[in-house]
Amino acid sequence: xxxxxxxxxxxxxxxxxxxxxxxxxxxxxxxxxxxxxxxxxxxxxxxxxxxxxxxxxxxxxxxxxxxxxxxxxxxxxxxxxxxxxxxxxxxxxxxxxxxxxxxxxxx
Length: 107
Prior knowledge:
Elements: H1 2-35, H2 39-43, H3 52-89
């Protein structure tokens, strides 16, 4: 019994310390990511500095992305509705017959 306590206690303490260290690392990483500026945003010109053709291109890209996401959401919604209705009202899946239960006096 003492062997189990002597081996598991240090292991569990090690796991606990590793979890605390991982949590602290993720918190520090989040804080540092929020403090540092985003480099890809600093290189891009502002929207009002773009030419009319570039503005139209960005607007068209944004509209296309909105349409694409709307269509994908609609497809997913229709699929989930058909799955739900098929589960409730569709053809029942054939189930294998259960073997007869054995009684205590059957040998």
